Amino acid sequence: MGLYTIVMDFEGGAYIAQVTAKNESAAIREWATTLDTAVIPRIGKKIKARMQQLLSEDEVDNPVAIHGCIQVWCDTLSVSGRFMLLTIIKTAQDA
Questions:
Q1: Fewer beta carbons under 10 A from the terminal one: N or C of the chain?
Q2: What is the pLDDT tens value at each position of the chain, 95 positions in all?
Q3: Cβ–Cβ under 8 Å, residues 31 and 19
Q4: Taking a C-beta distance cutoff of 8 angstroms, is the pair 53, 59 a contact?
Q5: What is the DSSP string of 4-64?
């Protein structure tokens, strides 16, 4: 298990959260589950539910390691024609 920081770039804003997960893929799924849509304009319950659905599909949930960086990945989502860039950073390892 580790601590992951997720940065979502979405429609001109950057939104940051931290989750504990076993790997980067699990971190994104956990982040989508715990995402507080009240603090992100233009993301409601329907968009959140669609994000969770997309991330549960194996072919979509495939973060790419960032070349030249250690423990940093990115992933993208297109939800109802709206683009999201996710940056995943493993910030700590549980002992």
A1: C
A2: 999 999 999 999 999 999 999 999 999 999 999 999 888 888 888 888 988 888 887 555 689 999 999 999 999 989 888 899 999 999 987 64
A3: yes
A4: no
A5: EEEEEEETTEEEEEEEEESSHHHHHHHHHHH--GGGSTT--HHHHHHHHHHHHSTTT---E
Task: Return the structure tokens found at 83.
Answer: 């683009």
Paired tokens of 91 = 């910030």
Quote the CA–CA distance of 83 and 11 in Å, as a whole number: 8
- Is 28 within 8 Å of 55 (Cβ atoms)? yes
**What are the C-alpha distances in Å from 53 to residues 3, 65, 70, 71, 95?**
23, 23, 29, 25, 32
CA 87/CA 95 separation, integer angstroms? 24
Q: Which two tokens stand for residue 67?
A: 């070349």
